[in-house]
Amino acid sequence: MLPLIEAEGLVYVYPDGHPALQGVSLRIYRGEKIALVGPNGAGKSTLLLVLGGLLRPTAGILRVEGEDIGNGDPRRLRAKAGLVFQDPDDQLFSPTVFDDVAFGPIYQGLSEQEVRERVDQALEAVGMTWAASRVSHHLSVGEKKRVAIATVLALRPELMLLDEPTAGLDPRGRRELIRLLRGLPQTMLVATHDMRLVAELFPRVIVMDQGRIVADGPSHEILRDEALLEAHGLEPP
Amino acid sequence: MTHFHFHDPYQPLDSPVHRLDPRVKLVLALGFILTATLLPAGAWLSYALMGAAAWIGAHLSGLGIRRVLRRSMLALPFVLAALPVVFTAPGPSWLTFPLGPWLVSVRGEGVIRFLSVLLKSWLSLQIAVILVGTTAFPDLLMAMRAIGVPRFLVMTFGLMWRYLFLLVDEAIRMLRAREARSVAPEIPGRRVGGTLAWRARVTGRMVGTLFLRTLERGERIYMAMVARGYDGEVRMLSMPSLSYRDLAPLIGGLLFLLGALLLGWMF
Ligand SMILES: Nc1ncnc2c1ncn2[C@@H]1O[C@H](COP(=O)(O)OP(=O)(O)OP(=O)(O)O)[C@@H](O)[C@H]1O
Ligand SMILES: [Mg+2]
After folding, report:
1. Which range of residues forms the domain containing residue B61?
2. Which among B171, B70, B211, B228 has a CA at the least distance from the CA of A101?
3. At residue B107, does pLDDT exceed 90?
């Protein structure tokens, strides 16, 4: 089976010269739910931005279903991958919740009817139908996160890239979000510091440190390897 | 997380004015302000009619005349800019008094003009208060689009409004952080807080930080837009069509304004 996304030796250097990714190789197959862990500054967010087609890799190969697009049109990647930013206030930029969720579908050129259907379905999936006409800055953090996920669901991406989805949530908000993520059928790559979330939800873990992948395998093995976790500033759940 | 409720002028009530289509409200409010601007000085009867209309609107909207008057006062000090007209208008003077080396005269024509400017501005402000008090901002954006404000501008207004709250939040958090680290003197009477120059530098740096954070946020927002397909062109869903129920108040209101205008110029 062809991987949905395949990266080989990805390098990304920020404009100020900071090398945030220093040769990252990975394969993501359809239907996988993968956790991306590592200490602050490891390069997790940067990797998500590159995989989401928002930063163009400085070097390396990036293939979508076998097709090399590293130097091609990043929009091909953006169409496949939906990125949920860490801070929902960055993601929710429209006046109302409806406008925000409709933004992507409108830019996909869908008809008005289809746009409305997509918005309804996406809000329904995250349990936020009641908030469609609400103004996003009046929502709670947990509600904003749900809407942020809906904005990406409405695009029907094959791969969802989430950056620290449980950060800043209270225990109940966290539980609800885990239930939501578990129920979504999409392939997922989720950057997180929440090791309990990893143990509960993700069969596969990728550990990053200093711009490199230092481990990649089944979570039950990696989460038991205390020496590895300790070496990279992580804690077992 | 702190959540500073920046004072949103919109009052979510249920009233005939709230239910009116936002496009009708915007057109009527702009028409009102235009009429007030075009009315000649001293057209007291027209002013009274317009005032009555504004007050009926305030009453119907559930905002209440008192609240509308109070809020509209806030911007009145700006009218003082028109005060010199009292002394510079042509015509006979009512009163002359020395002011330093000069002799100033209060002129009747000037007083009439000043009072007219004052009344016209005040009436316009009342209508603006009623408009933003009864129309949610997203609806106002839609109305702006409907009357032909360029989409790009509408989107910019939307973004400004959306992030104004966040920016205020951020500024307040920073001020609070500074507050938390500024201590009272241990020995009463001892000066704390460093020199004025040092405090000015700290404040300057805070403003700089706020600016940088805003820039970075702007970059992230742009990325979030690009991630969902934004390509520099502004696309929006089409607007619902105006119902007949909304046309009656639109036409009625515009006719009233025209009548007030004619009345002001003829008598
Ligand atoms: N815009 C930028 N310009 C320059 N350097 C950056 C920029 N963004 C991130 N970096 C640097 O790149 C490195 C990787 O950052 P990244 O945000 O990807 O880390 P992360 O793994 O997501 O960390 P965290 O867990 O704190 O979110 C860091 O050393 C960071 O300082
Ligand atoms: Mg990060």
Report:
1. 7-136+241-267
2. B228
3. no
